[in-house]
Amino acid sequence: MNGILNINRNLIIFGSLIILFGILIFIMKSPFIQANQALSLGISVDLVLTIPLIYFLLVRKTKIPNTTVAPVMVVGLILGFYFLPKESQTYLALFKTWALPVIEVSALFFIIIKISSAVKTYKGLKGFTPDFFSTLKNTCYEILPKRLAIPFATEIAVIYYGFINWRSRPLQENEFTYHKNSGTPALFGATILIIAVETFAIHFLLAQWNNVFAWVLTALSIYMAIQVLGFAKSLSKRPISVNQNSLSLKYGILNEAEISFSDIAKIERSSKALDKNEFTKTLCPLGELESHNTIIHLKNESELIGLYGMKKKFKVIGLFVDEPHNFKEKIENALEK
Q1: Beta bridge pairs of residue 258
Q2: Mean pLDDT of 169-190
Q3: Between the N and C ends of the chain, which has fewer C-beta atoms within 10 Å?
Q4: What are the residue boundaries of the structural domains of the chain, listed by start?
């Protein structure tokens, strides 16, 4: 019943938006708009202020984030530039030049404040070490549409782990690292070096043909290197943790899974090759490029959440742990309890 009510409410909200924008498009395409400055001002205000305000009043007590008001403003602005005659776009141009940047910066500060507040709340909990990426995702879910939350959080996390968080993270008693004896950090480092060398060489070759294309490709390569750096740095900041009732598997910001102890059939220390089937996965997204020394078998299917929220089902998962003996013993003790 609640699901039906939510669907009906969403239909009303977005149906109202379509109707309101449709009415304004009809007026903008009519001959009455020509050389009528008062009407142009009214339509411009309706597109970027009135309709977003109505939308805000409709969604403020629903699960739809209030921050979606900004995209509605942008839609109104785009429709205005597309349908309004050029001579009637003065007020829209003023809004785009002066008001829109202020709204964008304000939204960014709002997100930063929310994230900072959430991290402080988690730090206040005794015996709890906050995980930035998890906190960031939870905050983005509250203030952004669900489909944008994880991609947005991932991009921020890449910058945060790559350039901001350089302090070593103290390891808790229930946490286990997986990067110290693994070859993955070296592989990431080699990848960054290869990108740097190839970018430098290819840039000068392409610049002789098309300078703009060369700089675009260089910018993309630099962005890729920044992402790889963020992935590599996140490995040491997000250890695997054995919690009170569950096991939290993490591989930086690349992969993670939450497994209830009641779903664990057995855990074994083994480097044997894993069976190749759709329900057998490795925690490391690089697959066979990194070896594993621990295999966990589950009673029921679980979900491995990868980069940008991509999901995969598994019943057997292989992973590398720096202290596999202690890790296995910790889980077996937890299972006995």
Answers
A1: 248
A2: 87
A3: N
A4: 2-109, 175-237, 240-336
